[in-house]
Design brief:
Blueprint (H helix, E strand, L loop, with lengths): L5 H9 L7 E5 L12 E2 L9 E2 L3 E4 L9 E9 L13 E5 L11 E4 L3 E5 L2 E4 L9 E2 L10 E3 L7 H9 L4 E5 L4 E6 L3 E2 L10 E2 L2 H11 L5 E6 L3 H11 L4 E5 L10 H7 L3 E4 L4 E2 L5 E6 L8 E7 L3 H19 L6 E2 L1 E6 L10 E11 L2 E6 L9 H4 L3 E5 L11 E6 L5 E2 L7
Parallel strand pairs: 5-6, 13-16, 13-17, 14-15, 17-21, 19-24, 23-25
Antiparallel strand pairs: 1-12, 2-11, 3-10, 4-6, 4-7, 5-9, 8-9, 18-20, 20-21, 22-28, 23-27, 24-25, 24-26, 26-27
Helix pairs in contact: 1-6, 3-6
Bound molecules: adenosine monophosphate and magnesium ion.
The site of magnesium ion (MG) has 5 residues, from loops.
Length: 420
């Protein structure tokens, strides 16, 4: 099998993925979820013309000559309903959010007036009709769709949902994800430190990446490089919607993951992607038979190198998970940055360089976080983003405009932002 380009591999994965089923959640638990239904306004908002300022409700025609002295006929607080009609030469004291009384066609803020007495106010400026009035239905009209299905629930969206009294809502389910690490050399968090072993960091870094997407994964632990033990772990992992396996997918004689998972019925779609870091990356699909609630499970064989594992998650696993959760935007947001130094590159593979971004005269400046070996996880931990070096590049030069994928956990865009 030849090596797929990064974008071809991403497209290949998404061909197999649909949104998950729908479930009902309480408004309080809805942050980050994706709406699976249109939401309608249940009334006009505001329900009547209201004042946008603390001041006086006036008839604009009375202010042809200023200063003008008007009689105060009423005091209208937010929550009150006015009882009097404002006539010629009259005004009403009014607070922000209070209904504008009949007869008045504008509001003058208190800063443009002078109180003369309890019953008279001097107005020091002219206004056009409608000044500082928030019109009935300006925010939303009864019955209109205020949020369409597919909308991601942000704090602002929660505010809208509360405005229309949507206490419960339909959202797409989140996938159940399991993480398995493999390797005889690995030592887990709860084991004593053995200087000859390698601490299992991948399970936890992947856990963090999943949590950043709003998914609470299950950690299956560490399987040794033994086909029988591996088969047991993998079988358990295939009960989930998505199984992430770190390590053991390479071509070494003890890399048993691929043959073992294939023997369990997973159809391998690809296992070679022309990228650095990241090789090898395997993707497979298990078609479940019978009346299982969910008809397939997805398998990713991620590279064991800590940086490669994280980069592959960002490029391939996150878009799949976001598609399952109903998001329209699947990919990390890309920005253009000036390169702070030369970057060497031989044509062949797309390279992801860990960079930090600094603001220089209003532009991003991208500079390497340090050693780019796929085993140096500190340079990943320090990165603000991944600089994308196109496969065909012969290297990049200092000062060049380059594409950087932001690693900020909350920023996504609707296309990958670079092409191969
Ligand atoms: P593999 O893909 O199994 O050949 O592993 C490649 C490299 O990644 C080896 O140096 C492993 O020790 C290391 N590695 C594999 N799994 C993990 C893990 N869970 N945490 C940290 N390093 C790992
Ligand atoms: Mg291994």
């Amino acid at each position: 099998m030849e090596h797929l380009s990064v974008t071809n591999a991403q497209q290949c994965i998404l061909e197999f993925v649909d949104r998950l089923d729908v479930e009902t959640v309480m408004l309080e638990q809805s942050l980050g979820r994706v709406l699976a239904e249109d939401v309608h306004a249940n009334r006009d908002q505001p329900p009547y013309d209201v004042s946008a300022m603390d001041g006086y409700a006036v008839r604009s025609a009375d202010l042809a000559q200023i200063p003008a002295t008007l009689e105060i006929i009423e005091d209208i607080k937010a929550g009150d309903m006015p009882v009097r009609v404002v006539g010629a030469g009259q005004c009403a004291r009014i607070m922000t959010g209070a209904p504008v009384p009949q007869g008045a066609d504008a509001v003058i803020r208190v800063e443009d007036t002078q109180a003369i007495s309890e019953s008279n106010a001097q107005i020091n400026r002219t206004v056009k009709p409608g000044n500082d009035i928030r019109r009935l239905g300006e925010n939303m009209r009864n019955g209109e769709v205020v949020l369409a299905a597919g909308t991601e629930i942000t704090p602002g969206v929660i505010g809208i949902l509360a405005t229309v009294k949507c206490a419960q809502l339909q959202v797409y389910c989140r996938p159940r994800v399991a993480i398995l690490s493999t390797g005889n050399e690995l030592e887990d968090m709860d084991e004593p430190v053995d200087p000859n072993k390698i601490p299992n960091s991948n399970s936890y870094a992947l856990m963090g990446q999943l949590q950043a997407l709003g998914i609470a994964p299950v950690l299956l632990g560490i399987a040794r490089d033994d086909p029988a033990e591996l088969a047991e772990y993998l079988q358990r992992g295939l009960d989930y919607d998505v199984l992430l396996v770190s390590g053991g997918s390479s071509v070494g004689v003890h890399d048993y993951v691929r043959p073992t998972i294939e023997a369990l019925g997973v159809q391998m779609k690809f296992w070679r992607v022309a990228m650095k870091p990241g090789h090898p990356l395997a993707f497979g699909v298990l078609q479940r038979s019978g009346d299982r609630e969910r008809k397939e499970a997805f398998f990713f064989g991620l590279p064991g190198n800590p940086v490669s594992s994280m980069v592959c998650f960002e490029e391939f696993v996150a878009p799949l998970l976001r598609r399952m959760m109903g998001h329209a935007r699947l990919y990390r947001r890309t920005v253009q940055a000036r390169l702070g130094h030369d970057v060497k590159h031989q044509p062949g593979r797309t390279e992801f360089v860990r960079v930090m971004l600094n603001n220089e005269q209003g532009n991003y400046l991208a500079s390497s976080t340090g050693t780019q070996s796929s085993g140096v996880s500190l340079s990943m931990a320090r990165a603000d983003g991944l600089l994308v070096v196109p496969a065909e590049s012969n290297g990049m030069t200092k000062g060049e405009l380059v594409t950087v994928q932001l690693l900020d956990g909350t920023v996504f865009q609707d296309n990958v932002g670079f092409g191969e």
